[in-house]
Amino acid sequence: MTASNKNVSLNKIPTTVVTGFLGSGKTTLLANLLKKAKGKRIAVIMNEFGELDIDSELLRTCPLECEDEAAELVGGEDGIYELANGCICCTVEEEFLPVMEKLVERRDQIDHILIETSGLALPKPLVQAFNWPGIKEYCTVDAVITVVDGPAIAAGRFAADEDKVLKQRAADESLDHDPSLQELLDDQLNSADLVVVSKSDLLNEEEQARVKAVVQKRLPSSVKTAYINNGDVPLEVLIGINAGTEKTIDKVHNHHDHHHAHGAHHDHAHDHFDSMVISLGTVDADKLKVSVEKLLNEFNLFRIKGFAAVANKPMRQVLQAVGKRLEVHFDRLWESTETPKTELVLIGKGLDEAAVTAILKSAEV
């Protein structure tokens, strides 16, 4: 990362994305990182499906085994679990954005974010989400870390239990079913800033050489590989890479992109989003509410968030809509140095910016 990129990201929360197949050792790795937090306030986001919910339960309890006796669960509101050692654990049931927004609101309490993806997730769409308005201003991807199962790779497999991975994949209709497991592994490696080979204590010298050959064949020389046992690795190896991966992720081409290019169509939670910022002048509060509700009903919108300058009101109105639910409140007086204005961020799919703008402008006075 260049010095200029580093300065731009200086005040952003560094975020590490950990990806890898079911059973590769992702959760063990994260659990050990929490134990070695060394005063860092780390937020951990779990993003697993189905049977893997047990992973989030494991991570919630793991700090209790930490050397710091005070590291116990002290909260659990809205899927966010606070630990007494300053760390936070979150679970993602459906949407990634709302959880990230909650963490952004608490950014003064967070030094680093760790995200564990689904064993079947492609890291590229997730990393692209760090270019979303509301996230890109506050967070940057420190690194994508791909965890691979050493003994499985040495044996010519791609996961410790391929049948279990395939069953998990078949059970979820929202997942991309075209690429093979080998192609999925390739895609996870293509996005990596660091590769971690787990269970390396189970590899003899010949097997380790075999794994090294398989991994290095798929990686540029700039991407390093760490061989670890039981998820045990110094915190400094995984944190502080400063890759800023969201700035270059669009240049990563993978099998998933190839299938799309040849006519296959798939929808993903973080793919193909439209985002826009609409700026308006002073608005009528009732008309703005009607306009926003109209947008929520007529367009495929994930989120509307922003603030409004309401006619004849000295306070700024905060507006937030998720799904069909709209919430508004006044948060503070406009500063004497501010020019009251209305600014809304919209994120969705298939949005017609001209039509959206016209609907919102009808609320101006």
The CATH architecture of the largest domain = 3-Layer(aba) Sandwich
Could you spell the SSE succession in H and E letters? HEHEHEEHEHEHHHEHEHHEEHEEEEH
Helix content: 25-40%
Distance between the termini: 47 Å
**Contiguous uncertain segments of 5+ residues:** 1-8, 48-76, 173-178, 255-272
Order of the strands making up the biggest sheet: 3-4-2-5-1-6-7-8
CATH topological fold name of the largest domain? Rossmann fold
Number of strands: 14
CATH class of the largest domain: Alpha Beta
β-strand percent reads 15-25%
The backbone outline, from C-alpha atoms, is elongated
Count of individual domains: 2
Main sheet, how many strands, which sense, barrel?
8 strands, mixed
Overall SS class = alpha/beta
Number of helical regions = 13
Keywords:
31% helix, 14 strands, Rossmann fold, 8-stranded mixed beta sheet, 13 helices, 6-stranded mixed beta sheet, alpha/beta, disordered N terminus, Hypothetical Protein Yjia, Chain: A,domain 2, 365 residues
Question: How is this fold's topology laid out?
Answer:
Layout: H1 3-8, E1 13-19, H2 26-35, E2 42-46, H3 53-61, E3 80-82, E4 88-91, H4 96-105, E5 112-116, H5 123-128, E6 139-149, H6 150-154, H7 162-171, H8 181-190, E7 194-198, H9 205-217, E8 224-227, H10 235-238, H11 255-261, E9 274-280, E10 282-283, H12 285-298, E11 300-310, E12 315-322, E13 325-333, E14 342-349, H13 353-361
Parallel strand pairs: 1-5, 1-6, 2-4, 2-5, 6-7, 7-8, 10-11
Antiparallel strand pairs: 3-4, 9-14, 11-12, 11-14, 12-13
Please summarize what this structure is:
This protein is of the alpha/beta class and 365 residues long. It has helices at 3-8, 26-35, 53-61, 96-105, 123-128, 150-154, 162-171, 181-190, 205-217, 235-238, 255-261, 285-298, 353-361, and strands spanning 13-19, 42-46, 80-82, 88-91, 112-116, 139-149, 194-198, 224-227, 274-280, 282-283, 300-310, 315-322, 325-333, 342-349.
